Model the fold of this input.
Amino acid sequence: MAVVTALAMLVVWFPLNAILRQQSALNSTAAQIAAVKAQDHSLSAQAKAVSSKAQAILMAREQYQLVSPGQSLIQVLPGSGGYVSANAGDPGLQPLAAPVSNARMTEQTPPVVAPHSTNGFLARFLRTLEFWH
Done:
């Protein structure tokens, strides 16, 4: 009886184990398919929202600061008050640093330029090329 029970368990367990593993894989794949379908639906809704010309122009103005031909873009920067804008992370909107805050700038001395006695073409040309030194 023990041998028959062992054989029955062996015959039932191996196929049952394979079926359970396959069902788990199917469930995982079905969840991935559902996530991709949800993403596809979201992207389709976004594409439909931008398909009209008015929406495309609005998006170009808001996200890319583009204007129509003949128009000019004017950005109003916030004052020095405690107002924090939505674009606080944009380095172009940050205030300029004071020159005295940069230690390297305060340590540098301007180069001494010797007065030039000649005003000929060759002298002026050589003075123009002095930045190569």
Q: What stands out?
A: Residues 1-71 form one domain. The helical segments are 2-50, 53-64, 103-107, 121-128. The chain has four helices and no strands. The radius of gyration is 37 Å.
